[in-house]
Amino acid sequence: MPSSSTDIASIRRDYQLAALDEATAGKDPLVFFRKWFDEAHKANVAEINAMTLATVDAENKPHARIVLLKGLDEDGFVFFTNYDSAKGNELDARPYAALVFFWQELERQVRIEGSVVRVSEAESDAYFHSRPTGSRIGAWASPQSSVIADRSILEQNYLRFEQQFSGGNVPRPEHWGGYRVLPDHIEFWQGRSSRMHDRISFRRHHDDWNIHRLAP
Ligand SMILES: Cc1cc2nc3c(=O)[nH]c(=O)nc-3n(C[C@H](O)[C@H](O)[C@H](O)COP(=O)(O)O)c2cc1C
């Protein structure tokens, strides 16, 4: 390992901005998530909708990457991707995922776990057609997660599909669409001083939620 000027072990920050208690978190974690999301938006949190998505493959090995939250309703959390990608194959084999948001400007983390379903074709179409033309062509041009010989393959694909759809209508590829994570566990974490953080956990129980405070 080359020597580095950065002393990683000495990097630390004491969290002091806010506190979280059971009364504030309320009874419905999706309502509370929306409240925290709105507060993060007002605080100009960077990449507020970027979330880590963890999946497991058929051999139960975990894989994680960032995707963007593109929808939120009473059922759950929606993101869009290539169904033939590594994550798409993993979700086909094991339709269960974990999501993590870290809003460092507010010293907050939210963890979400649940089963995963594909959104309806109409929902995928509606979002796909709201995207800029270049991104829509990109969805055709990129065989996401496949090994490619070099970047020129992508660029050739892009030009080919740009020509094919030069009439302006870029349809949604069948291999591209949304997933919805249906949460059965949501945990809100607020950083506190001296690592004495607040953690409020919601676990689904039939149509209700069991609420617990967890040690940090
Ligand atoms: C900020 C950010 C946002 C991203 N958003 C998405 C997204 O919404 N959908 C997506 O498929 N990939 C997104 N990616 C790329 C993924 O992290 C990942 O590289 C890609 O989906 C392939 O993952 P896989 O091979 O595990 O399927 C994003 C990456 C970053 C850094």
Structural notes for this entry:
With 216 residues, this protein is an alpha+beta fold. It folds into two domains: 13-129 and 174-213, Pnp Oxidase, Chain A (Roll), CATH 2.30.110; 132-171, no CATH class. It is built from six helices and nine strands. The protein has helices at 22-25, 29-42, 86-93, 121-128, 133-141, 151-164; strands at residues 50-56, 62-68, 71-72, 77-82, 96-103, 108-118, 176-190, 198-205, 208-213. The two termini are 33 Å apart. The mean pLDDT is 97. The site of flavin mononucleotide has 15 residues, from strand 2, strand 4 and helix 3.
Short description:
Strands 1, 2, 3, 4, 5, 6, 7, 8 and 9 form a nine-stranded antiparallel β-sheet that branches.
